[in-house]
Amino acid sequence: MQNFEFYNPTRVLFGKGMIARLDDQLSPEARVLVLYGGSSAERSGTLNEVRAALGNRTFREFGGIEANPTYETLMKAVAMVREEKLDFLLAVGGGSVMDGTKFVAAAVPYEGEPWDILVSKGEAAKKALPLGTVVTLPATGSEMNCLSVISRQSTGDKLLFSNPLVYPRFSVLDPMRTMSLPMKQVINGVVDSFVHVMEQYMTYPVDGMAQDRFSEGLLSSLVEIGPRIIATPDEYDLRSNLMWVATLALNGLIGAGVPHDWTTHMIGHEITAKYHIDHARTLAMVFPALLKVRRAEKRAKLLQYAARVWNLTEGTEDERIDAVIRKTEEFFENLGVPTRLSAYDIGAEGINDLIGQLEDHGMTHLGENGDVTLDVSRQILEAAA
Q: Is Oxidoreductase there in the keyword field (predicted)?
């Protein structure tokens, strides 16, 4: 196992009715900006619950954060916080709203050009406003990590930053808040969570026994949850399990002391930036293709994954690897999520453009060993065609 440092300061309040506990988490003098996305937070009643829990505190609201939060929109929130002298941020929504709120938290006290926070991958931020979250869409794990991904419309960039200053102080996870979501968004959450786990698991063995077994348990849970949640969408326990698995998939625990491979996410970000395809659906296209191209480098973990998650133990090693890659593709496809670029009319010219974007953003040596060059990324995209 590799050396590691694990830190996670986020308090989780999980279960029905937990939004009312906001009152316990905030100072009576807090001046709060509530950030959210579209009208669904209003229609579902979540915003009304939040307003009631905030009580007599001073609070303002900022809506309209996009599914891929943009720098342009978030800078309007930054201006509001500065003008109204607000001192606490509360994200109400899914990963995009939470990511956007983290950027606002870091940008408000920043004295230079806030885009530098993203260009520096978060290192430029030395201060941040405190923030909390009320999760309505389980998918990204942003409620319990210090990561954020932001797009800039004017340049077509989509960049990630990380800084421990933007860990949420607390996160409210009420599975009932997910009941009104369109099924497409719920399934996106299943896929996003699955790939998050795999990018911390599907590398090479380092004898991280707890991490591997924990990851395999999360993957097996998602394999079960996905089809069941389509069949019985109103089952509270399924919603609860998806919400908690999504959080555990990217709160740092399963990734401690093991190598990571975020190639799928980096390529997926470029697809979303250019074609505005849902983030999870870009992952479903890229990840099986990556397994095909990188099967030699990931051979040991592919065989382990085949045996422990899919119970594939018969046949030669190559036959088992072929079978488990097919199983992974079928898992996504059976959830109604395509695994081919052609499903979105992305052809050879589009692949060339995506490789150019990767090069422009310095994504030239990805993977657990830094050996996923632009040529390898092209092979992955071609395998996904």
A: yes
